[in-house]
Amino acid sequence: MERRTLSILVRNHPGVLSHIAGLFARRAYNIESIAAGITEKPDVTRITIVVKGDERVIEQVVKQVRKLIDVIKVVELDYADSVTRELAIITVNCSKETRGEIIEISDVFNGTIVDMSEKTLTVQVVGNERQIKGIIKLLSFFGIEEMARTGLIALPYRSTRD
Predict the structure, then answer these.
(1) d(Cα 2, Cα 21) in Å, to the nearest integer?
(2) Fewest CB atoms less than 10 Å from the CB: which of 7, 56, 87, 128?
């Protein structure tokens, strides 16, 4: 199974995101992550989809996505030639004894403590997939109470396009 990251520019109309996700669902492909947001043009949305599956069938779905009326452009992003980021907010169990260690781990990953209680710390971290997985692995030793992740967003490096 191959992993693909697609950057899809669409006209900002209701139902476009669900229509695109539906094309993948009908092929029984699990979308690993999906993120959507308005671009520098208010009427255009960028949808970033990470999907894993058979190369031939993914290519078929991409062809169908390109045919949709509201789709402007579909680009497959190569991980090595792209800036990729994800945001994670992680609430971790802590005690007075472990609080400092959790803050140190957060600092190593350029994280920010965004909430604190007697028994928990909430860490916000932005990074590539490897960095996010790394901090989650380290924080899991303390017990992760709750976590939310945005999913991957990506743009190609400018130096590869100019």
Answers:
(1) 18
(2) 56
